[in-house]
Design a protein that fits this description.
Layout lengths: L1 H17 L31 H11 L1 E12 L5 E14 L6 E10 L2 E12 L5 E5 L4 E4 L5 E2 L3 E8 L4 E12 L15 H5 L1
Antiparallel strand pairs: 1-2, 1-9, 2-3, 3-4, 4-5, 5-6, 6-8, 7-8, 8-9
């Protein structure tokens, strides 16, 4: 009996440290909070195949020019609609990347209005997330866009601000990595599918 009591005491002493083990604070994060490598989509959850997501990024990887109409709420609660001439530069980080950096230059009446740098990535939903360096986060909705090798139009929705932008752009020039010649007839987006 004494032997059993000793074993039970030892077992209880070994179990006590187990009760003090806690979960790491990062255990609750989902894969899209800390993607590896940066902004890499997980194919299991993707709306498009990985090849199509890379091709979509290669289409984006260019200098675009056109018009953007922004509808946004001022600090005083008033809604405002402004139209800008816009230049967007999307730079893909690598030939097979679905993310990169970019720059937005806006013009009003031919005069430069502002310059904003941003990071971008194609989400598993095929939406394009744009995070400006000033903290503004926007989402170009896949169902509301039309992206071909030479044209890019769509709707960009504010994620942390009250703003919706409508844009229509033409490609001015390809950036470093462009799509293969045989791929240039493909189109992406819900608007294209509705045509």
């Amino acid at each position: 009996m004494k032997k059993i009591s000793t074993y039970l005491t030892l077992l209880a002493m070994m179990a006590i440290p187990m009760t003090f083990i806690s979960c790491d604070e990062h255990d609750s994060y989902y894969y899209w909070d800390e993607p590896e490598p940066p902004y890499a989509p997980h194919e299991d959850y993707s709306r498009l195949s990985m090849d199509d997501m890379v091709l979509m990024a290669q289409y984006l990887n260019a200098h675009w020019r056109g018009m953007l109409t922004a509808t946004y709420q001022m600090d005083n609660g008033q809604w405002v609609k402004d139209a800008f001439d816009i230049d967007w530069e999307f730079d893909q980080d690598a030939p097979n990347a679905t993310y990169g950096r970019g720059q937005e230059v806006s013009y009003v009446g031919g005069e430069q209005h502002g310059i904003r740098n941003f990071s971008w990535r194609i989400e598993p939903s095929a939406d394009i997330r744009v995070v400006f360096d000033d903290g503004v986060e926007m989402l170009i909705l896949y169902d509301e866009m039309d992206l071909t090798v030479s044209m890019f139009s769509g709707t960009m929705q504010g994620m942390n601000i009250e703003e919706t932008d409508e844009f229509t752009l033409s490609k001015v020039m390809f950036a470093q990595y462009g799509p293969a010649k045989g791929a240039t007839t493909k189109a992406f987006g819900g608007k294209h599918q509705q045509k």
